């Protein structure tokens, strides 16, 4: 697949108007941005968008030098959830076809979750249904204060099923039950209170400033260690603190100390110089 560091604009599947559904932009330093490019449809999901996002995440996972991936939407909306025409078409699908359709969404979200680089959702406007799930699947979410969120599937007789593992991990079971069951909308301040959002900023300009700050911060972090730190959370979450877990964590830090990154990081600290990976 194309390397976005070498080829900053990666084209994906075209819509019937020949415009790109999802864009990847990347700098030589490894700052990548994935943009859902359906502003006229509030960046809503359909089958083609989901495939394009999965391909974008696969491309970034296989590209050398990617340090941080920002997820955003074109125009004033992050992602308004499912496209209405897509939902209408799905009403005529068989149960097997619907299962395959939903599995494509689940696979796309897992590719996002498994990216080795830090992932950051930049949320403006609406983040409804799958859009809120997309934010939950990222490592960090930052929203403007006027952003709105909702898990409104029950109002259509549906379920927020494929996004639920990421949302429950972000906000906890009790909050998820209440929000899933009522489908009510909530603002960015509440999203931060419950853990769906990490930071709320004033406006789009402040969102851009937060993006630049995070891009600068990640350059001080060893890329391999970032990936392993993310996997560490997945491995220890929910496990009892027993001898097996203690042995596992001790093995991980011992391996990190002996790694090239670990040795370089300690040497750089003692020599009072930037590490080799620092941008």
Structural summary, described in words:
The protein has 2 domains: 22-218, 2-enoyl-CoA Hydratase, Chain A, domain 1; 223-270. The chain contains 11 helices and 9 strands. It has helices at residues 47-62, 84-90, 95-113, 130-137, 164-171, 173-182, 188-194, 204-218, 223-236, 243-258, 260-270; strands at 22-26, 31-36, 68-73, 118-123, 126-128, 140-144, 148-150, 185-187, 199-201. The protein has a 6-stranded mixed sheet, with helices on both faces. A 3-stranded mixed sheet has the order 5-7-8. Strand 2 (31-36), helix 1 (47-62) and strand 3 form a beta-alpha-beta unit. Helix 1 (47-62) runs parallel beside helix 3 (95-113) and helix 4 crosses helix 5. It is globular and about 60 Å long. The model is unreliable at 1-18 (pLDDT under 50).
According to CATH, the homologous superfamily of the largest domain is 2-enoyl-CoA Hydratase, Chain A, domain 1
> How many E strands?
9
**From the helix content, strand content and strand pairing, which structural class follows?**
alpha/beta
How many structural domains?
A: 2
Our measurement of the CA-to-CA distance between the termini, rounded to an integer number of angstroms, reads 25 Å
Shape: globular
The main sheet orders its strands as 1-2-3-4-6-9
Q: Which percent bin holds the helix content?
A: 40-55%
CATH class term of the largest domain: Alpha Beta
Tally of separate helices: 11
Give the CATH architecture of the largest domain: Alpha-Beta Complex
Low-pLDDT segments: 1-18
């Amino acid at each position: 697949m194309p390397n976005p560091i070498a080829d900053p604009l990666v084209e994906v599947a075209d819509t019937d108007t020949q415009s790109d559904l999802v864009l990847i932009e990347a700098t030589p330093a490894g700052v990548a941005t994935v943009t859902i490019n359906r502003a006229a449809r509030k960046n809503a999901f359909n089958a083609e968008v989901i495939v394009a996002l999965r391909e974008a995440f696969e491309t970034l996972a296989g590209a050398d030098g990617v340090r941080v991936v920002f997820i955003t939407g074109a125009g004033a909306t992050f992602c308004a959830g499912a496209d209405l025409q897509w939902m209408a078409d799905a009403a005529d699908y068989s149960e097997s076809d619907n299962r395959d359709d939903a599995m494509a969404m689940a696979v796309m979200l897992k590719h996002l979750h498994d990216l080795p680089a830090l992932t950051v959702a930049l949320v403006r406007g609406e983040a409804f249904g799958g859009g809120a799930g997309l934010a939950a699947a990222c490592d960090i979410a930052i929203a403007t204060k006027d952003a709105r969120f909702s898990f409104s599937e029950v109002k259509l007789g549906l379920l927020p099923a494929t996004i639920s593992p990421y949302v429950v991990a972000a906000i906890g079971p009790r909050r998820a039950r209440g929000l899933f069951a009522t489908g009510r909308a909530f603002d960015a301040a509440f999203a931060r209170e419950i853990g769906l959002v990490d930071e709320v900023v004033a406006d789009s300009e402040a969102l851009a400033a937060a993006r630049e700050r995070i891009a600068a911060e990640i350059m001080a972090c060893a890329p391999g260690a970032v990936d392993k730190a993310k996997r560490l959370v997945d491995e220890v979450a929910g496990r009892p603190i027993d001898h097996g877990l203690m042995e596992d964590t001790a093995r991980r830090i011992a391996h990190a100390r002996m790694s090239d990154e670990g040795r370089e990081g300690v040497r750089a600290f003692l020599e009072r110089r930037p590490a080799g990976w620092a941008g």
